[in-house]
Amino acid sequence: MPHFLLVPVGSHGDVHPFVAIGKRLRERGHHVTMITSEPFRDVAVRNGLEFVSTLTADEYYSMMHHPDLWNSKKGMRVILHRDLLQKYMPIIFEMIRQRYEPGQTVAVGSVLSFAARIANEVLSIPYATAHLQPMACCSVTDPPVHSDGSNFTWLPKPLIRLAYWGAEKWITDPMMAPAINEFRSTLKLPPVKRILTRWSPSPQRVIGLFPDWFGPIQDGGPAFRHAGFVLFDDAAGRQTPESVSSFVAEGPPPVVFSFGSAMIHARAYFEAAVEACQILNVRGVLLGKSGEQIPDKLPANVRHADYAPFSEIFPHAACVVHHGGLGTSAQALKAGVPQLVMPLAYDQADNAVRMRRHGVASLLYPKRFTGKAVASRLKLILADDDMKQSAKKVSERFAGVDGSSTACALVDELAGGTATPA
After folding, report:
1. CA distance 306 to 239
2. Can you give the CATH number for the domain in which 358 is found?
3. Which of 92, 95, 205, 272 could form a disulfide with 128 if both were Cys (CB 3.0 to 4.6 A apart)?
4. How far apart are CA 132 and CA 195, in angstroms?
C-alpha cells in the first residue's frame, strides 16, 4: 500500500488543502500521514489521517499572535524564524526518514517544506510540491502583484527575471539559506541558493492548487500541472452556530466579514465593519476568533461567530469582505457573490487583483479601511449588477470540477517510483 507523507507549513489556509488531498488519497485506499503543527491534529484525525506533530500548540499560537505576522515587510521573518528552522528541519527530516520505504512512500509539501525537499535529495523519495497560490510559482509570464499593491506586470520579461534574482539575493535567501545550508552541511550536501525559485520546488512534480483561468502559469516547466482550487473548510466537523444560521435565514442576505483564521489583531477592521453596517442599515456577520478583536457590544443587525464553514454561509451573503487568502477567495468565487478585499500581506493583494480582473471584486487597502470608506465601497458593490453577474459566471466554472481529486491523481502518479536525486 502506498504511503503518502503530507508536510504542509502554515495556518488553516495552508493546511486544509492538504487535508482535502489526504482525504481523497485515503478514499483510494492509501495510507496517509500528516506531519504538521499540533493544532491541526483533530482535523487530520477526523478525516482519517495519521498525525505526527511538529510545532507544539504553544509555538504555533505564539507565531500566530506575533504582532508582525500580518506586516507585509516583516511577516515572512516570523514564519521563517531561524531558530524554528534550525530546530524543526532535522526533526521533520527524521520523521520522514523513519517512515520512508523505497517504492512505497511519496512526500508532498509546499514551497516552504524545506525538510521534505532535503529528504527528496538524500533519500530519493518521490516528492511533489503543491503551490497554494499563483504567487508561489514565481512566474515571469504571469508575475504577481506585491502585497503593498506594487504592480510590475508591465515590465519586460528580462527585468522581471532580474527582479526575482534581486529579491532572492538580498531578501529571501538571507532569511532562509543560513539555517537550510547549516542543516544540509550535516548531511554532507552542498549549499543552495535561489531557494524559492530554483531549489525548493520539486524537480518531479509541481502542482498549482488553482485553475489556469485564475493563474495561467505558462512557464511552470515540465513538472508543473494545474489541479484547480482545493476547497475544504471542515464543514463536516465544525458546523455553523445556530445563532448565526438562524440569523442568516431570517432576513435579507447579510454582508459577511472574515479576515483570516490566523488573525487575532483585527479589532479596527471589525469595528469598521460594524460601523459600515450601521451606516448602510444592512445586516452583517463577523467571523473571527473571540477576544479583544471583536467589539464588546454588537448591534441587533450584526452577529458574530468564532467559526462557520464558508461553504455554508457564503452562498447566502450579499457580499463577502475578507483579507484575500486563497482559501477564502476560492470559497467566495464558488459561492458566486461579490467581494471586497482588504489585502494585508503575502499573496493576498495578488489574489485580489486576479479577482478584480474577473470583475468580481473590489480592493480597499488597510490604511483606508474605515467605517465610512467600507460603507461607501459596499454601497457601490451592492448596487453593481454587472459585478453580481460576473460573480455568477465565475461560479459556473466550478461545476463538475474537483481540484482535490485532480491533485490526488497527480501525486498518486508518483507512487511506486524512486526519485532521481536532484
Report:
1. 11
2. 3.40.50.2000
3. 205
4. 17
Cα dihedral sign for 144, 289, 234, 5?
positive
114-123 helix and 173-186 helix, angle to the nearest 10 degrees = 40
How many CA atoms does the CB half-sphere of 334 hold within 13 Å?
24
Give the global pTM. 0.91
Is the same domain home to 120 and 246?
no
- Please tell me whether residues 146 and 194 are part of one structural domain: yes
Higher pLDDT, 150 or 156: 156
End-to-end Cα, the chain, rounded Å? 26
Please give the pLDDT value at position 64. Answer: 78
CA distances from 186 to 84, 89, 198 (A): 17, 12, 22
Q: Where are the alpha helices (DSSP H) in 28-141?
A: 41-46, 57-64, 75-79, 82-99, 114-123
- Residue 109 has which C-alpha cell? 509539501
Q: What number is the average pLDDT over the span 293-301?
A: 88
Q: What phi, psi does 129 have (nearest 5°)? A: -100, 125
Q: Say how far apart CA 59 and CA 273 lie, in whole Å.
A: 31
User: Residue 300 has which C-alpha cell?
Assistant: 441587533
pLDDT interval class at 417 (50, 70, 90): low
Q: Which 3 state secondary structure label does DSSP give 35?
A: strand
